[in-house]
């Protein structure tokens, strides 16, 4: 293909608009400049235009719904400018954040340590594989975010094919491994420092204690691990594996290097946030491109050959690879806009009074939030859109009906439930695209019982920790 072919030129146009959006949103947040925000919104609009040929029905549906909600806000609210401005800011933030994480993911996929860890997770005997994939997926998602799915699904399917078994049970092996991976990723969002749900909600709900949220999130994550392991063991209790899988030993050096990379990312984020007097969210956004360059230099070395290799890889990522993230960036931007603008249409205080949420026991409200959020996700509303809607709704209340930190945790738990329950969840659609497994089978076919049990577990958990 010619370097000047229409496709190549279009890719460069997409790359240019995405890079401009990232730079302008970061600058606008750094300098709190209205003029820069206006330019950033223009870059988002240019991105929508350039990525239009690659968008699918879902993206066009979300964009059309965004226009409808914007029209309703404009026609019915006196504070229309404030609501729509906040919604545009949210859209730009989510678009840029997923793009910045995509930059980091591209550095991670070429890391030998990451490759060793992925092979280790998928080459475990049946008795240990669920816990390994659930936990390993979650911790790798700190760096990869949703990209961990793109990395692990092919490893799982290649490993099953390579085993070359003749017992006709490869479909069961695929179901068990991919379900464990999906569950681990889904429940990582309730504690991961880089998950989109907490980062979005922290800016929407005042009074959230992030460290306490992470602590309780890790407790729930461990409880769901035990629950999922028990459910899987019971479901496949009659299954007897055949053939000898040669498990790989834990690669301690690779694990240590990956942990060090996570530590550098989080430490750098905290330092930038402290120096600038900004939130950790902003620190994380600035840290991603710095980590990208640093990780590539660490992989390629600092000599002349290494510098050339790093420069070539950066050009490949920024010009050739980033455009592939355009559709998911549009999905998240539209979801962010809908969630924030939709909450502006709903009278929060009146809704709380009408539903008597202010008189409901705290634990009951907290247990109901994840269930309601996951049920809405069946209407093709993405989990992140509903999380932002709920976050904006509760954040705008005159008085919180429960502890703000626990409300934020409950909303992120609803996001987790949605990812094993809704065939419209982004991660489920991505797995479908990579593996060929239908979204309905991944969720309502394979994981509906697990999701219902998890919702029941949350009710017990919130009842147990109530003041």
TrEMBL record:
Keywords: Membrane, Transmembrane, Transmembrane helix. The chain crosses the membrane at residues 58-76, 83-104, 131-153, 180-201, 213-230, 279-298, 365-394, 406-431, 443-465. It comes from the Bacteria. This is Uncharacterized protein. It comes from Rhodovulum iodosum. The lineage of its organism: Bacteria, Pseudomonadati, Pseudomonadota, Alphaproteobacteria, Rhodobacterales.
